[in-house]
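Researcher: Predict the fold of PDZ domain-containing protein.
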Amino acid sequence: MILIQLIWMIIKDVSVSIFSPLLWIVIIFILIQYRKNIELEREMLGKERNSLKEQILDSVFYGFAAGILGSIVMVFLGITIDNIGIEYVFPLAIFLMFINPRYICFSYAGGIVSIISLLTGFPSINVAGLMAVVGILHLMESMLIYIDGAVNSIPVFVQTDNGKIAGAYIMKKFWPIPFVALVTVSAAASGIDLFRMPEWWPLFRTDAGLNSIIYSLYSIIAVLGYGDIALTEVPEKRAKVSSRRLFVFSILLILLSVGGIKYILFRWAAAIFGPLAHEFLIIKGQRDEKEKKPMFEVPDNGIMVLSVLKNSPAEQMGIKPGDIIVKINDMFVNSEEDIARVLSTEPSIVWIVVKESDGNYINYEYRNYKGVKGIGILIVPTYSDKVYRLNDMENGGLIKRFFDKINKKK
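Model: Structure tokens for PDZ domain-containing protein follow.
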């Protein structure tokens, strides 16, 4: 009963975060990023599949859900965030964002602040508590990526090392994370809802020998981001691989942070492991995509489907990214011009022969007695003027673009 009351208190405190100015700053940042996503999507598909409002609401919903779950985990473990230096971490994360949007992740800012604190003693912060919070945030992120990471991924054309064009998907998601964590307060503090917790709690005690400690819930606003490119597999599969790797990273970082409660060596390990291991995961993911064979390439026969438009005839038939369309109405097709030629008479019935990625052939049929003008797909072309180089897909921030412009003028 006590735990249920505590969980309800956590839900209420997280919900109240909707009135926090910091949360709205984070949402505005996400809105700006999603506007860029929509501009790219319109360039590739002609229109966005989901509106800006829908994408923002999606991120806010999952962000709040993750914040509640992460808060419960943090309170359950009894990890306090006394003096963790969030007032230093948040501004640094915003600054790093301008170098590269993915650096807004607290692994980088948290690790930098922790290392400086360990080296110089300023700021004087609870490094173990800070890196534990970072670990739990990434635990939330791994779950968000698994559930929501592939949603609204954007199809693009890229030029591979051999000079050929391949299809790929850019996955760029952000979630505002309002959560609450424990802080110790004076026993004389008033206006606090008091609960007598079970004897086993907290699992990790930071104040050995003290039997009477009063904890309070403290609200924090964070933002989590996921940036990746799916070149050798579909976005859903790519996101799940990234999620599993990040989950392992999170558990290791939490364990190092818990060890840092008593031992300074573990504090150093957590502070260094956080940013370096996180960057390693990103670099490894990018390298894996470059070294493997692209999934979406121009086939010898037929046309490769890269993306299917929402509510289109192709979606209604069940055509998927990675399928190869071989025939339409008994005519072989090898280009967009072939499709346009077949549909120029606006037939009321369309038969499509599709070769799936496993080699099986499937026949689809679509009927519209007003006439079929298009089937709603984006294919991998042999040539396009909308091609990105893989080495340029890092999407640097304002600072990087500023120096790039200076270098071009020299």
